[in-house]
Specification:
Layout lengths: L1 E6 L18 H17 L4 E7 L4 H9 L8 E6 L12 H9 L6 E6 L7 H15 L5 E5 L15 H4 L1 H5 L14 H7 L6 E3 L9 H11 L3 E7 L8 H11 L4 E7 L18 H15 L12 H7 L11
Parallel strand pairs: 1-2, 1-8, 2-3, 3-4, 4-5, 5-6, 6-7, 7-8
């Protein structure tokens, strides 16, 4: 069951939104409002969440408030990795949350928090224990990142690999399962905190880990799962078949679906971090996904007709200047 729709992922992080194209985030604000309204039109009961911000920045939340974005949303989300990337210590979590509470009355989710095993697996175990102490019951939703390590043959989603040095490689060690599926010491500890702690797992297109991941989540007692549906992937052959498989595999959980990633041919710049040429197209993608996977309960199944296709620009890629 999809219970929430998250609009973008880390919009204030240059790995996910290009500030050179949109330095004031006004284009993002316009796109987010259009997307939130499109989601609400299809299912007003679906919780709409501002994509988890990283870094945790009250000024960014205030900017979104001033643009009117928060008027269209039901919650804001935060991402924090103080033992790996952030310039603050893990015990500062309550202060970081209070900084956001000071600028918005919306519920606060921590939709990504985690600790890598880059240095030692024991660090992750301790970090999970301490994170649970600091966050369980203190925010409306808390989701651990992640179930699996990122396979070393894949690239991490970041735009500044060359500048990150060893920090880049921490992306590959965030799981409580190793790449080969074997458990790390923190896995047993994580199971002690479910269902209070949810879990984040991003699935790549046609990810072979999908079914085994769902089995592990059930085994661990997970109730809340966050994943993503990529607007860029929507243009791949057989995209809807993959989306259908992903959503079916996760149907036992309360799912937060993150809508993000600009198709290269629909961005102001040819990159998934770019603001779109036509923000209504992203709203159309959100509308189509809600219509398909989280329709209004009292309306029954809603046709996946031509309207969404037109909004997405899928009827004629040539008419949209596809390259």
């Amino acid at each position: 069951m999809i219970e929430a729709a998250m609009i973008w992922n880390e919009p204030n992080n240059k790995s996910h939104w290009d500030p050179e194209i949109d330095p004031e985030w006004s284009l993002f604000a316009q796109m987010a409002i259009l997307a939130a309204d499109a989601i609400a039109a299809k299912n007003p009961e679906l919780t709409k969440v501002l994509g988890g911000i990283s870094p945790i920045d009250p000024f960014f939340i205030s900017r979104m408030k001033n643009y009117g974005v928060l008027d269209h949303l039901d919650a804001v989300a935060l991402h924090g990795f103080p033992l790996d990337w952030n310039l603050w210590q893990i015990h500062e979590w309550p202060e970081k949350i209070n900084e956001i509470r000071a600028v918005t009355d919306l519920p606060i989710w921590v939709s990504e928090v985690g600790v890598s095993t880059f240095g030692a697996e024991e660090v992750q175990l301790w970090g999970l224990q301490r994170t649970a102490e600091l966050l369980k019951g203190k925010v409306e939703r808390c989701q651990w990142y992640s179930l699996y390590d990122l396979p070393r043959s894949w690239e991490a989603t970041t735009r500044h690999r060359e500048a990150e040095g060893s920090s880049y490689y921490r992306h590959y060690y965030m799981g409580i399962l190793r790449e080969d599926g074997t458990p790390k010491p923190a896995l047993e500890e994580f199971a002690k905190h479910t269902p209070d702690l949810g879990l984040v797992q991003w699935f790549h297109f046609e990810d072979p880990r999908l079914d085994e991941a769902a089995a592990w989540m059930r085994r661990l007692g997970v109730k809340s799962v966050r994943t993503g549906l990529s607007w860029a992937d929507r243009f791949r052959p057989n995209a809807l078949d993959w989306f259908d498989r992903q959503m079916q595999a996760l149907e036992d959980f309360d799912v937060t679906v993150t809508f993000c990633f600009t198709p290269e041919h629909r961005g102001i710049a040819p990159h998934h971090t770019s603001a779109p040429l036509v923000p209504e197209e992203f709203a159309g993608f959100c509308e189509e996904m809600v219509e398909r996977y989280a329709p209004r309960q009292n309306s029954g199944y809603v046709s996946r007709g031509a309207k969404s296709a037109r909004l997405l620009g899928l009827e004629s890629r040539a008419s949209l200047g596809a390259g």
